[in-house]
């Protein structure tokens, strides 16, 4: 009997690319809760040229490939996983995203690569892609998205947390991509 490959989706910034700015996520979350009284999860979309410039600058802080990408390559080579990139980067960040993909030859590694070209809300875009692709695992670094996704689909949602978030409980939480990737086969019970 042929073994089934585990279908795994990976977020880009903060997961496949290390982003030191993500350490501020818990502080931003607290500020949002204090000043923005909306109960529904809504991510900001930059409209003006200045806001988009700032947003591009922020995304340039994804500075290098995360340790763990080599482990992903090995699992793909061994035909244990089928891997996808699913990033919620908005359309105006598409060219920079494509440059990162090309520079790191990710198109040679991942089966398919998706970005949020229609500017959907990030959590809704990722939920849709997880369902469309029938993913069994999705690896994400944004805890707001993790909280949303963990109840919206059948995929295991693995969370790459940062040092300030280490006290937050989530069953599938890991301090880095390498440890998350090493847990994929164990958590999906695949030999």
Output the keywords.
single chain; 191 residues; alpha/beta; Rossmann fold; six-stranded parallel sheet; two-stranded antiparallel sheet
Give the topology, please.
Elements: E1 6-10, E2 17-18, H1 25-35, H2 49-59, E3 64-65, H3 69-77, E4 81-90, H4 94-103, E5 112-116, H5 122-133, E6 137-140, H6 143-149, E7 156-160, E8 173-174, H7 177-187
Parallel strand pairs: 1-4, 1-6, 4-5, 6-7, 7-8
Antiparallel strand pairs: 2-3
Helix pairs in contact: 5-6
| Total beta strand runs | 8
Pattern of helices and strands: EEHHEHEHEHEHEEH
Number of alpha- plus pi-helical segments: 7
Second CATH tier, the architecture: 3-Layer(aba) Sandwich
Q: How many domains comprise the coordinates?
A: 1
CATH evolutionary superfamily: HAD superfamily/HAD-like
The helicity comes to 25-40%
CATH class: Alpha Beta
Q: Any idea of the CATH topology?
A: Rossmann fold
How would you sum up the major sheet? 6 strands, parallel
Strand order of the largest sheet: 5-4-1-6-7-8
Task: Give a structural overview.
Helix 5 packs across helix 6. The mean pLDDT is 87. Helix 6 links the parallel strand 6 and strand 7. By secondary structure, the protein is an alpha/beta fold. Helices cover 37% and strands 18% of the residues. It has a single domain, classed as Rossmann fold (3-Layer(aba) Sandwich), CATH 3.40.50. It starts with 5 loop residues before the first strand and ends with a helix.
